[in-house]
Amino acid sequence: MSTTSTHQRTPSPAHPVRTITGEDASEDVTVSMRYHGRLFIIDLSLSNFSNSPNATKQYLKNIEPILPDNNGEYDGITDTEAFEWLANIFEPIFSRLAPDFTPSFDPVKISNGLSKPLLSEYLFPETFGCRLDAEDEKFIPVHVDNEGSLVKPLSFLDGDLLDELETWTRFFDPLELEVVFQRPEQALYRMPELVLADLDKSDHKTLCFFKHFGLASENPMTHEISVHKKVHDAKLGPDVRVSRLRGIVHIQDEDATLGLLLSLVDHEEGMTLQSALYDDPPQNLRERWAKQVKHTVEELHRAGAVWGDAKADNVLIDKDGNAWVIDFEGGYTEGWVEKDEAGTKEGDLQGLRKILDLISSKPTD
């Protein structure tokens, strides 16, 4: 007698992925949500409402929490509650168009090893376009098409840069990369960060970190690549604790770049230097982290590279208690680096001094 898993019987909740809004709730909004492995792009506009003043008030009340300036809450409603409100309206469409999990997104099949999803399936899932109407005070979810209004999350790097990259690193199509999740249920809502890649064409796959860059992210990706090139050219040793570039995730047919493959820093989720210091670690660990971060920044500077966004949240603590410097996209964080010094070695040193001060300071009761 065949049985059906709990995951297959019980519908998964819809998970918000991306929201595009204006500055005001009355402006058009686009919300993308994942449900059973499919992507639903929902366009929201008051121009699709007619004879519905009360529905309009309810709509605006639930849109306010998802506006960026409202920090996830407005008038007692959280953004989570707002997304649930929207998902409930569209549940009939979700259930009709995506009644079951696709195999690649089924947590049970992933857990049992029956499904080995590819990165391409997560980046470019089956997609449906939807719209919210309101007529005579009734909300009406509408399935518009099987494409959606959002463009693909692609970036297009300079051709000369791509040619140079081919001389010292590898290119990988997302079809070549197998996705790994620490918890299978993450397949339903999280962009993959761990992938298996055959780095040397030996049929042996290595676990790597996939750093995804979204739509039109050419500048931060180019900045990060430039740092990795300097690390590569300087032949910095393992004592310089930064991830190494292992490859470029690229779609040849579209000449589009999706992100970077980096060597993995094995750490507990969320274990940054900032969070590690909350636990008041012993002095020997504090001294180790201070020495490691200082040494890594100094060696990056000797190689002609700049960290950029120097702060405690951009230092990972691995499972062996070592400190790794991450995030070379550029930019700066207020309170760590002065705006005028952003992107310079002096800016790095400003951030480093504050990091060292934080490491040496003890929490107060």
From TrEMBL:
<feature type="region of interest" description="Disordered">
    <location>
        <begin position="1"/>
        <end position="23"/>
    </location>
</feature>
<protein>
    <recommendedName>
        <fullName>Protein kinase domain-containing protein</fullName>
    </recommendedName>
</protein>
<dbReference type="InterPro" id="IPR011009">
    <property type="entry name" value="Kinase-like_dom_sf"/>
</dbReference>
<dbReference type="Pfam" id="PF06293">
    <property type="entry name" value="Kdo"/>
</dbReference>
<feature type="compositionally biased region" description="Polar residues">
    <location>
        <begin position="1"/>
        <end position="11"/>
    </location>
</feature>
